[in-house]
Amino acid sequence: MALFDALPPAPIAPKKPVTDTRHGITRTDDYAWLRAENWQAMFKNPTILDPEIRAHLEAENAYQKAAMADTEGLQKALFAEMRGRIKEDDSSVPVKDGPYAYGTAFVTGGEHPRFFRTPREGGAETLLLDGDKEAEGKPYFDLGGIDHSSDHRLGLWAYDDKGSEFYTLRVRDLETGEDLADRIENTGGDGVWAPDAKSFFYTVLDDNHRPSRVFHHILGQPQAEDRLVYEEADAGFFMNVGGSTLDDFIFIDINDHETSEYWLIPTSDLMAKPQLVARRETGIEYDLTEGGDVFYILTNADGAKDFKIMETPVTAPGRENWRDVVPHTPGTLILAHEAYARHLVWLARENGLPQIRIRDRRSGEEHAIAFAEEAYALSLHGAAEYDTDVIRFSYSSMTTPSQLYEYDMATRERRLLKTQEVPSGHDPDAYVTRRVFAPAQDGERVPVTLLYRKDTALDGSAPCLLYGYGAYGSSIPAGFNTGCLSLTDRGFVYAIAHIRGGKDKGFAWYEDGKMAKKVNTFTDFIACADHLVAEGFTAYDRIVAEGGSAGGMLMGAVANMAPEKFAGIIAAVPFVDVLTTMLDDTLPLTPPEWPEWGNPIESEAFYRIIAGYSPYDNVDARPYPVILATAGLTDPRVTYWEPAKWVAKLREKTTGGAPVLFKINMDAGHAGASGRFQRLEEIAFEYAFALKLAGKLA
Fold first, then answer.
1. pLDDT in tens, 293-326
2. Residue limits of the Peptidase S9A N-terminal domain (predicted)?
3. Is 623 among the domain residues?
4. Alpha carbons 34 and 42: distance in angstroms, whole number
């Protein structure tokens, strides 16, 4: 390929065959050696990585750097553009809670947020935590936020300085700015204060990176003396700990991708044994929020596929006492709910678009907050206090910068608090956002959100970046994205494929893209590419596909299924060795993932289904497009060896001469670089790759 003519020889991983036989089927993996035997310890101390593996990964980085050398100027230009669209000294509108209002801010040039508070009605800011100061001298640093105690005297904060998502909890005196001696290691990052402000609850990750235990920590005592509150025996479940708005309960939330279970600790008796709400039942999900003397329960019980809201007495929360409050409406998916003294609020999606609905708890009267654009994104921010009529929400579209509103649920008045500033300027009228529908193989209509400049020719000549995810029920919002303007301003059509596996068209849209129906996710994405070409938005040799994590699996699958329909593929931290991972129950996420993909250990049927699409297992001799894969060395979600093995096999098998590039961040995990501008450098790199393939290096 002319764009990559002067490349040095690509790294060739040696073959060290390992065989595995399941259900009478034998597979051979030539590159299994790229998985470090000491991966669990390495996540906490990356310096102990096997030297042979490190040398190979560093050779991959050198190769991709040579391949992208001619884009270095473009990367700098893209970075400058994207940085220029960010208000560097931006700050949030503080949220009122008790005598104070709490907010976050950035300083010019700063990578990490600063947490502050002011008196409730305004006044001088008090700095509580400076993320940039805490990150000094660390190649990677992720600040997990800070939670203030009920007396507003202490702050519980979390950080990860390896990228492996093992968080350390510290306690800060908010008056002096000094940390107490308390240090809690290997947590999931979720700690919650007890109302006494003398203790807190937290989850601990086991050696396989699973949050398996909840502990109660009393200030001043060593972590080794903390009381075990709850231990989850089933490795297939995630666990979180949180608190109710009224501080009446500590919630222990246990779930996988299709089943929920809640346990409650009354804060009136912190030593009480956790109380079960409703025992887990496969396929039944529920989520609690407190509403005074009742719990409001968002659930799919009783066949409510798109969920409904029920209520139950706080004093007797068992399933036998649940009764409908907001009935199930097929096609209207309820995503989240919140309760306040006089109102019940929920976020729903209907016809692919989000909406906020509000019910007066006394009169039962309902209303919705209306919006006009064809495609938009909506987030419900709620309020920190229970006794309020005022909540917040944010709104944006592909052309409209984010707007934060305050909304009075009683008077129905909305007040604009803040509009996202674009310092370098932004003219919404220069762009077009549209929603089109691509016909899928089985007749379904797949939504595609588009953004492009009004002066872009729609005659098939425009390059296109087609983004997709399609897993876990996650819907990709059609919101404002300052980064993608660097593509559209250079003539790209930016497209988001709302494929099955997400919940963009309701819960059934999710079900039709998981387990045995997973292939629909891949064929939907290809159908979106076909439709964009048929309608003149782009051409096959102009499409660059992009997806990350489970969306990276999508990239690997479509590369195998329809390589001729893409000029290039960006696979960020791609989950591409699906079968091997789902067969290894020691990996951090494997048991909790079985409800999403199927369990190939127990089921030969699911073994064959996953083997039929797993990208790594289906790499074969064919002319692949140019591929860029990225990874993080300490990523516990998609381990680095998955893309490393995939790249090695692609390079061995591809017949068309297109290069395969692999960039691995040796100082980060799943989310890549942690700082806000460091992350922009990674996006600039990916976009420079897309622009290079489109012949737009200038």
1. 999 999 999 999 999 999 999 999 999 999 999 9
2. 15-419
3. yes
4. 13
